[in-house]
Design goal:
There is one protein chain. The chain contains 14 helices and 13 strands. The strands form two sheets. Strands 1, 2, 3, 4, 5, 6, 7, 8, 9, 10 and 13 form an eleven-stranded mixed β-sheet that branches. Strands 11-12 form a two-stranded antiparallel sheet. A hairpin with a 2-residue loop joins strand 8 and strand 9. By secondary structure, the chain is an alpha+beta fold. It has two domains: about 170 residues, no CATH class; about 200 residues, Alpha-Beta Complex (Transposase Inhibitor Protein From Tn5, Chain A, domain 1).
């Protein structure tokens, strides 16, 4: 006897996000990955793509709850939800590549030409950064991704998935990403991102400095602005008129220099005396002034804000991924990245319609609005989808959080967390103390 979902479950959609993750796009990704259904079933591939995206959108919900959210308003599907093991087997059949392909088909730059903070002298601004996600502590996940161990080899923490992203500075949208484990370095995972960075100025922190990465990005048609480590490019080979200078960074194999590249060093101080040194392939000081590059570097925080949206708001603080097998972990991560990119698209569209900076549109409120659109299937037809999006965009008062404020508020130091349930004898809890805000002032060194 056929399951009552057979022939009906292809009606499942993902609320407002269906505008970008269309059934046609999903079917194309499934076909590209050779995952087309061989026979009719209750959980066909297209339904499972929407289900996995639903797992990311409703991260706090169980399989049953996510399925109920997706089908409760569809006649004939609200009863007889398949059990968890059926969904797990269907996820295993689908694999991670389909969700990665969906992400790449949905993805792409979002900032329109002229959007403030998105371009610098004709180059789209992007940033590379990495973050970790905790995975369930299963032998398979620990073997695939690695985790922190004690000196005697005893596992100390959850296996960790390392995600490195290329994010658009002006919109915080993830343009490209690579998924690995604790055993993979950020620099190695970032190398393939160069293929998506053509004609961009890519900003990176000091952990990414290296000749191989430099040549990978510049060879792909991108430009780079990277903070230097303390031992990088310390010797000037040619001073420039604006106080910057040319130097070289080298790749070594033992004591033998394999190759090197010429870089321009921009050096400045921030309040408190800390010296910051930036490396760039933009060698012309007249065309690319040092003060402008120094100011641009601090836009790297946009990538961290983008990653925080995924880690903290879209999921939950300190939440653990739900998948017990490595392929399903990767599938889940690609689903989170896809959902985040669609939310970024929605924010850009809403902001553009009101001529606002995307920073002013609340990510959390848009996320909640999208969740609310799924349960009643408020966007399961093109007409209803258009009506819902228009209604959402018109209600700007609820979404607009105003211009981003300068970070001038006092910082709070959290109380010390004890390792043990009972405090040591004689220990007294210290009250939370305040730290005075530190205002950063760029001071390029001119000679």
């Amino acid at each position: 006897m056929l399951h009552p979902w057979v022939g009906l479950s292809d009606q499942v959609r993902l609320g407002a996000l269906t505008r970008w993750v269309t059934p046609e796009l999903v079917d194309e990704a499934i076909s590209d990955c050779g995952k087309r259904d061989k026979k009719p079933g209750a959980l066909p591939a297209r339904t499972m793509v929407y289900f996995v995206l639903g797992l990311a959108l409703f991260h706090q919900d169980s399989y049953d709850d996510v399925a109920e959210n997706l089908v409760s308003a569809i006649p004939g599907l609200s009863g007889g939800i398949p059990n968890k093991s059926s969904f797990t087997r269907a996820r295993q059949r689908l694999g991670p590549r389909v969700l990665e392909t969906v992400f790449r088909k949905v993805g792409g730059p979002l900032a329109p030409v002229g959007l403030a903070g998105s371009f610098y002298r004709g180059m789209r601004l992007a940033a590379v950064d990495g973050f970790y996600l905790d995975a369930p502590d299963t032998p398979a996940n620990r073997a695939a991704f690695g985790g922190q161990d004690a000196k005697d080899g005893t596992p100390l923490a959850f296996p960790q998935v390392r995600v490195v992203t290329l994010s658009e500075v002006g919109t915080q949208a993830v343009l490209d990403a690579r998924v690995g484990g604790l055993v993979d370095s950020e620099q190695d995972l970032s190398l393939p991102l160069a293929g998506s960075a053509r004609d961009m100025l890519v900003i990176m922190d000091r952990g990414f400095v290296g000749v191989k990465l430099w040549l990978e990005f510049t060879g792909a048609g991108a430009h780079v602005l990277i903070r230097a480590k303390s031992n990088n490019a310390c010797t000037s080979i040619e001073p420039l008129a604006d106080g910057t200078y040319l130097a070289r960074i080298s790749q070594w194999q033992g004591k033998r220099q394999v190759r090197s590249v010429t870089v321009r060093v921009v050096e400045y101080q921030v309040e408190g005396g800390e010296t910051v040194r930036l490396l760039t392939d933009l060698l012309d000081p007249e065309q690319y002034p040092a003060a402008e590059l120094a100011a641009l570097y601090h836009d790297r925080w946009e990538a961290e804000l983008s990653n925080r949206q995924i880690k903290t708001y879209q999921r939950r603080p300190q939440a653990i991924l739900r998948s017990a097998a490595p392929d399903l972990v990767r599938q889940e991560v690609w689903a989170h990245l896809t959902v985040h990119h669609c939310l970024s698209r929605m924010i850009v569209d809403i902001a553009g319609g009101h001529r606002l900076d995307p920073d002013r549109i609340s990510f959390v409120k848009v996320l909640k609005a999208v969740r609310r659109s799924v349960v009643p299937q408020a966007a399961n037809t093109p007409r209803k989808l258009g009506k819902y999006l228009a209604s959402l965009a018109s209600n700007l008062r609820k979404l607009d959080i105003g211009p981003r404020r300068n970070r001038e508020a006092d910082r709070l130091v959290n109380r010390v967390k004890l390792k043990y349930a009972d405090p040591p004898k004689g220990w007294t809890r210290q009250p939370t103390r305040r730290i005075q805000p530190k205002i950063i002032t760029l001071l390029p060194r001119l000679v």
